[in-house]
Design goal:
CATH topology of the largest domain: TIM Barrel
Largest sheet: 9 strands, mixed
Oligomer: single chain
CATH architecture of the largest domain: Alpha-Beta Barrel
Number of domains: 2
Structural class: alpha/beta
Number of strands: 17
Number of helices: 10
Distance between the termini: 39 Å
Helix content: 25-40%
CATH class of the largest domain: Alpha Beta
Order of helices and strands: EHEHEHEHEHEHEHEHEHEEEEEEHEE
Amino acid sequence: MIIKKDQIETPALLIDLDALEFNIKLMADHFKGKKAKLRPHFKTHKSSTIALMQIEAGAKGICCAKLGEAEVLAAAGIHDILIANQVVDTSKVYRLAALAGNTKMTVCVDNSENITELSQAAEAYGSTIYIYIELEVGMNRCGVDTKEKALELAKQINNSKGLVFEGIQAYTGQLCHKVDESVRIDGTIEAEAFVLGVKNYLEENGIPVKEISGAGTGTYNITGNHDIWTEIQAGSYVFMDTEYGRLGLEFKNSLTILTTVINKRPGAAVTDAGKKVCCQGEGLPAIKGYPDLSAKLNEEHGKIQDEKDALKYLQKLEYIPSHCCTTVNLHDNYYCTRKDLLEMIWPVSARGMSK
């Protein structure tokens, strides 16, 4: 049965497969022959299918934000997973140790107590957990901010059963949406100076640093060209959104939300897609094909000022969300289209996996 895109019930989360495949290939091609390797971030798409496509295109592994996401990835057959975050609840620490029995699991740390518990859990399960020390490089979240503290933690890791010190995470997410490329470049260089100082200090004290992981879609073509980095954690490039669209990157918008005009009156239109299906945290969604229009969202509706009466009752529109990652987490399924025909439906495999 052939189903056209405009026959899909709304609201619906759409993927343009041609654009998605273009983005995956473009990013994979960028890292061919480079020291840095791509480790795409799962938190953007939360789809095992897309993660496997990224691995097939050449990604070294996948990173994610939460243990629940890692469990979904492992169940899909992905065997090199980084949790680019801290795992500290005792129950989660032991779940992580169990998962590490069959999968190469790496996790970030920034304190001694967490290292002790990770070691105890790994020893209990007879597994090995790989460790990155997280550095604070401008996000003001987690991470240590001195080379001395990093050395203290690295020594503890090396003296802990079941743990292997692999390297450093230094995520400069605060730079990724800066429109001025010079700000992204200068900020990256500043962060790299600190990271390199920590790396050299650890190695001067006899502790090799194998991996340095970080960066994102907004800085992939800066960090990816610098030899200090071994892994780039880009995520949003697969979909893009209006925030990243301001940067002028070569990736295409492959993610939209299909919505229907359910009310039309002179100068205004109302759609059936609101905040419950489209994140508004980074601004209003754009409307594909209508650059002069945008939708102000209520819970269940989008309200559009349509002064030229360009829209019609029952017309199908596509929102381009301001933030793809948080929008995806509002949906159960992707409706995957090619040439305006529905080709397949994929589950959002790790929707709601926030633990």
